[in-house]
Specification:
Elements: H1 2-57, H2 64-79, H3 85-98, H4 106-135, H5 138-142
Helix pairs in contact: 1-2, 1-4, 2-3
Length: about 160
Amino acid sequence: MQASWVLAVIGGLLLLLGAYMSWTAGRLDRLHHRVATARASLETELARRSALVAELASSGVLDPASSLLLLDAAHRARTAGPEDREQCESALSRAIAATGTDVEPWAVELGVAMRRVQMARRFHNDIVVSTRHLRTRRLVSWFRLAGHAPLPCTIELEDGS
């Protein structure tokens, strides 16, 4: 009688542990999908900002030096590889701040684009932090609940935030 009670308790604990691990693995999977979605959203906002800056620079409303500076920074940001992306996007932010981009109606559109980049980056980084926090738990690492998914990284940009 005593042995069957102990086996039932052990079986129940194993069942609870399995359910927790299954739930945690599902949560990790959802977080990794959210990281990928947030990254895609950030990439979209960065591309929109670069396109808007290139359009502003080629519109003829800025002086030639500012136009060349902005065009070069926008081109570098668009064509940068993954290892240079953060630096090139930060350089574009600095170029926007350094030039006289407060020309109407461009100032409003550019301001909106800059805020959208800031929000997308913050959202992405918040999700990355949550994912990394969950992945540091012992059960997650012991039982490899994250599978082979790479550890996500935050994106640090000089975007005025």
